[in-house]
Design goal:
eight-stranded parallel barrel
């Protein structure tokens, strides 16, 4: 495994991270997968308070027993589960402070390494949200904070107003919107980028083609074929992950992995041949890059 420093923090995270949302509620099975991932070098585990309504954090807490010092734990807050299963948005200071306490208890740890705002809109009281994270830092309950956002206007405000060390954003061959401006902007400001969705819900590797964002089913099929065409000395998963990892702004690809085979495949990305400039151009030429219509 290769490790990189996340932004201006002292968090040395594996280039492949574990997207824990993919874990089942089967405690024994999920703990086994997490321990296997750690044995293979994945030291960055990302969760959120709403994943399985907190059960995800509880399982991670049990998996951390005896190995806490080896794992960088990231979680998130801001969404509120409604009785009907939907989500409401609450970025208020009190909500974030309360959620942090609850996550610490479920994870059964003393401090959260990276605490993230699980979304964000330009209409939020951003200064109040930042106050919550800064207070948690002062109290020693979190080490660093960041945001999880795909919105350029929100990202720009947090860069200007806060001391975030990271932004988690959706990025893949089928969602190249971050290439417009946010990746370069974050790189310029020394803020680490955590990528989610590198395989585009599996559409780039093994799922049947369907409409995705503004891409037609045919667009998705072309992109998947291009990935397949380059997957001679690497798997489709490794080609897709390498595409995002090779952007200089990206620190870590956070991958959802449900089986031991998927973990091994993702980890081997680090040893797989890098994409050449010609190969990157080949992939980009396979489909038209979509652009932001809102939140610019």
């Amino acid at each position: 495994m290769i490790y990189s420093t996340l932004g201006t923090s002292d968090l040395n995270v594996s280039r492949i991270g574990y997207g824990c949302m993919s874990l089942s509620t089967n405690e024994k099975e999920s703990i086994s997968l997490l321990h296997m991932a750690l044995d293979l070098g994945i030291n960055f585990w990302d969760t959120a308070n709403i994943y399985n309504d907190g059960v995800n954090e509880t399982i991670i807490g049990k998996a951390l027993k005896g190995i806490r010092d080896k794992v960088i734990v990231a979680t998130k807050a801001g969404n509120v589960r409604r009785p009907d299963g939907g989500l409401d948005w609450n970025p208020s200071k009190q909500h974030i402070l309360t959620c942090a306490e609850e996550s610490l208890k479920r994870l059964d740890i003393d401090v959260i390494d990276l605490y993230q705002l699980h979304g964000g809109t330009i209409q939020d009281n951003i200064d109040e949200t930042i106050e919550a994270f800064e207070q948690l830092k002062r109290e020693g309950k979190i080490r660093y904070y960041g945001i999880s956002s795909i919105r350029p206007n929100v990202i720009r405000e947090y860069i200007k107003r806060s001391s975030i060390v990271s932004v988690m954003t959706q990025y893949s061959l089928l969602d190249r919107r971050p290439e417009e401006e946010t990746l370069d902007l974050l790189n310029k400001n020394k803020i680490g980028v955590l990528v989610r969705g590198a395989v585009a819900q599996g559409l780039l590797i093994n799922k049947p083609a369907k409409k995705y964002l503004d891409h037609s089913e045919n667009d998705v099929s072309k992109a998947a074929k291009a990935v397949s065409d380059l997957s001679v000395n690497r798997t489709a998963t490794q080609t897709s992950i390498n595409y995002v990892l090779q952007h200089p702004a990206v620190t870590c690809a956070v991958v959802g992995m449900r089986t031991s085979e998927q973990i091994r495949d993702a980890v081997k990305t680090i040893q797989a041949p890098l994409l050449s400039p010609n190969e990157i151009t080949f992939l980009q030429d396979a489909t038209t890059a979509i652009r932001y219509k809102e939140h610019r």
